What does this fold into?
Amino acid sequence: MMRWMLLCALSLPLAAQLELLNARDALTLAGRMIQLAGSTSITAPGLARAAAPMLENLNQDDKAIKIAGRLTISTTYGLLTDARSYLALADGVPKPFPPNPTAKQQLTELRDAVERLEIHFRAMLTATETQMRGADRDNLRRYAEANKTLAAATPDRVLFYGDSITDAWRLNEYFPGKDFVNRGISGQITGEMLGRMQADVINHRPAAMLVLAGTNDIARGVSVETIQNNLKMMADLAEKHSIKVILASILPTSDHHKDSNPRFEMTKGRPLAVIRELNQFISSMCQKRGFTYLNYYDATVDSSGQLKAELANDGLHPNADGYRVMAPLALAAIEKTLTPARIPQQTGKKKRQ
It folds into this structure.
């Protein structure tokens, strides 16, 4: 892992190379951040008590980093998130007067450390993207030509992002006259989608991004925590570039068609309980962060907790009836996300996809 990261770093521009810390310096910086959070928490009345959950999260980050023996993209992201939360709380707590000069100095050092780790984190993402482009793990070639010819974004462009369920959705048929762009790729997992965010989403400057992802991760045994982190990072990147976020629930699966083909027994590989767990997380994240939650699940689940038999011929991928159920829900979520003045009237004119 570190070998290819180093090789990728050396292929980056000089400025980017300087932003990427070596493994030892990154670990030292992370350890110092956790130490500073602990020492500053006792310098203001009530701060240690109020910050106890955040300090515990930082301790868990420390354990995860030590187990891995290095800073990964996931552990770095977690550490940055928890450190920022702690600093936000520390800034809002009344300080003693006169101020403690040591505490003030340490908080300044912690802010500087967070900023430096943020630069390192962005360089890690750049190095990862560089490596992935070489092998094209994320299938960046899929839309390379389409991206070159895509018309300039309108103020109401929405980008549909996901796996085969998105890939197979003929948006012009279900949403005529809308500037809706499809960037789904069959078979992809959330980590691969994260890797092509810049090329397939951010560069197109959509007003909103609609993400439907996670079912393939479940089938491949990707941990729930990893799926959650990937979804959070995609949302963070969108927010950073002023792209509104719509997160869709994962559709249930079913075994209704297994008699016609044993391969259509879908609930073993994509357990319904895991789908429900992830949907609860997605719904909660949307509520906490002001994103739009697109609830396909409730409209497609039957009384047994499986995908309605008539909505998919294989227990996984929506058929025409399935997309007819999903389309008005997607449009309602988009209209909720964008201001009414920015929802265009249907003209019948199709946009290039």
In short: The domain at 141-342 is CATH 3.40.50.1110 (Rossmann fold). The radius of gyration is 23 Å.
